[in-house]
Amino acid sequence: MALQLHVPVCAGLLKSRSRVCSLPQRKVSTFATLSQPRSDSGNWVEATNTFFLQDKRPIMLFDGVCNLCNGGVKFVRDNDRNKTIRYEALQSEAGKMLLRRSGRAPDDISSVVLVEKDRSYIKSEAVLKIMEYIDLPFPQLAALLKLVPLFVRDFVYDNVADNRYNVFGRSESCEI
Question: pTM for the complete prediction?
Answer without folding.
Answer: 0.74
